[in-house]
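Recall that a protein's primary structure is simply its ordered list of amino acids. Everything else, from secondary elements to tertiary packing, is in principle encoded there. The following example makes that idea concrete.
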Amino acid sequence: MRCSRTIKLGILVAVTAFVGSFMSSSVLAQQQESLKELLQKARQIQIEPQPFKIELKIEGEKSSVQEGDSVRFVFRSPRKCYLTLLALNKDDNVIQLFPNEWHASNLVEADQDYKVPPEQSKFNIMIVPPTGKMEFVTAIASLEPIKTTQSAPATTKGKFKQFDKPRLFLKDLIGELGSKTEWSAAELSFWSDSPSPAPGSGQTE
């Protein structure tokens, strides 16, 4: 009997919440479009030059994964800093992967690997449908605490935190980062796909 616990990764991390379920469909569509625009802005935030470079990867250096695969994210900073690891999913939820239940503080030491989930945990982050698209995870690090990630309303979902108002959270985060000079960001993108049919299975595209 397998004793590991699993969180499922869809577009990014499939922890679901019905944000805005009380809204009419037209208003909800506008809210979702606005959030998508903010997500795009968040990915485009850059400073030149960055004062330090964050390393972010999937363990095993994978550039693509298949449905049913488990993934572990690994990050490292050359400087002691405050780091937050975020996943933005297709349901317009923003999930904080780090800090988390295993590592409550976002203060990380220089030149040390951090893994999500940790190797000693009996926990998986698993790829689930729908696949056939790019997945994105973002690390944001600063030499001073980022207040938005600490003060924004959020709900604990298993091992991780999910922000209650993702659109407002991203808007405030973008605004706060715009006022800082010593911060860096790294984005991890990888392709998720369905497993290939077994030879002789008779399945066709």
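Residues 1-33 have pLDDT under 50 and may be disordered. The first strand starts at residue 5 and ends at 9.
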